[in-house]
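Limitations
The structure tokens in this dataset are predictions for the assembled complex, not deposited experimental models. Users should treat interface geometry with appropriate caution, especially where small molecules or nucleic acid strands are included. An illustrative entry is reproduced here so readers can see what is and is not provided.
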Amino acid sequence: MTDGTTAQRPCGHVCWAYDDPASFEARAREYLLAGLAAGDRVRYVTGEPVPVVVERWCGAPRLRDALRTGAAEICSIDDMYGADVLDTDAQLASYTAMIEAAIADGHAGWRVAADATPLVLDPVRRDGFARYEHLVDRFLRARPMSAVCGYDRSRLDEAAVEELACLHPTSDPGTSLFHLYAGDGGLVLDGELDTSNHDVFATALRRADHDPDELVLHAEGLRFIDHRSLLHLHRHAQSRHGAVVLRTPLTPAARLVALLGLSGIRVEVTG
Amino acid sequence: MRTGAAAGHTGYFHEAVLYDSPEHLLAVVVPFLLDGVAAGEPTMVSFGERHTALLRSALPPRSGVTFLAGGDVYARPSAAIRSYRQLLADQVAAGATQIRIVGELPPVAFGRSWDWWSRYESAINHAYDDFPLWSMCLYDTRSTPPEVLTDVVRTHPRTATPDGRHLPNEVYTAPEVYLREPRPVAPDPLQRGVPLVELVDPTPAQARAAVHAVATDHVGADEVDDLSVAVSEAVTKALRHGRPPVRFRLWAGDGRVVVTVGDAGTGPTDPYAGLLPARNVACGGLGLWITYQSCDHVAMQRGPDGFTLRLTTGDPNAT
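Predicted assembly:
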């Protein structure tokens, strides 16, 4: 549980969108096998009955061995997240315990692949889970834990997947044009913001911005931002912080902020 | 209290000076400026190098006339309007009852980009009418193309003459009318070739990706970024307010990139579209205004097939 360990986990929180549960499981198995190879304890969280999945996984010797030794676990969505409203604090506390146990048992860390689709079918529950997605993103940054969140495109529309995918540092191509996630002393904003995702950006900003102090957006990986998104950021900044700092190599962002007189945004153009 | 020919006038007093010799130019401009200084009015000049030197030699030392820094105030019409409106607001806030300005467009404005400068000359009758401004715009009748001079007398309510008269231009046309007329737009030679990229109903992101893929080889990185802003706004506007299909075409060569974004609709109804921002920034409607400030030339064309916006980055007069 050191920063050095965390630094070796560049993609600690990933979002996958799938059309076929079997393809998600196959991909998750590869992901978890890589975790085992790296010395992690791994957990697969499924909506299927656990014994059915265990039987299937026991067909693969490496997974069968890992399940027997406790290096790999399969658990149900209810066991992982509870059947009721998600208690974020309790959830993160349980992760801390799981990580500590994994380390105590000689593992390098803890790796989870979870199909979270049933938790976000209802819009109200989805809002709560999206806020949790950002909190867990912050949590993961400082701990030897990595996680994949899977969402079923056949049960969720594109907009629902997009509003969850954008809160991860990385997500499958086509799920979101931008990402807003936890960074050092602020949030990281990358990708492209335009009229197609203006509402999603507004929602993501509301969910991810918890700090009443000055907000710094590390937007070194931002490839485009349109004036509507800047206007929204300006209004958000004025209502929450007074001003936000936008660190970006995009010179047009600085020009648009000056042109529109957006006092809520201070652009720092990076090299 | 306003002085001179504009005494008693409310708002913008906009004149052309159609000169054919340095003597003609000085006979109109020198008294205009010195009378302004004598009346205590902010009195300014925005000339190119040659006429700045000519005028300085004709004015007395410490004349009180302010020579505005050349720079690129006339690089883009919408930026010129923004810059001058700020200057005028500052002067009024400081107590000015009249501001006198004499200026000239650089000769490059009379080339393929004249259409947007003619729109500028018309639009400022409205855009500067909030201020007690008396300005003179100089045009050399010996070197200015005749079609440009035709537009000049249609966009300036009056012409100032060397004998001190201020003659109404009979053909002056109010901006709300002039700006709704179809303007001839000179085709860019690059458009004679096959477009390097052609997209139908692209998303703004797809259009930006096309710009980045091709324009990078022809113009600088900052220009590519600025063109991406313009293209994104143009495609967004066409998808939102135009009629399908939206057609995106891109040509590049000779140090410039030309993009057209067309749709089957009739284009913006606001005669000042692109030149002035929407009144309420918070309500949006700024896309075309931003487009106008992110390119080296923007042309609007209406035809039987619909409305087309042509964006140029790089010298629009290059061949």
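Some entries come with short summary sentences. For this one: The radius of gyration of chain A is 20 Å.
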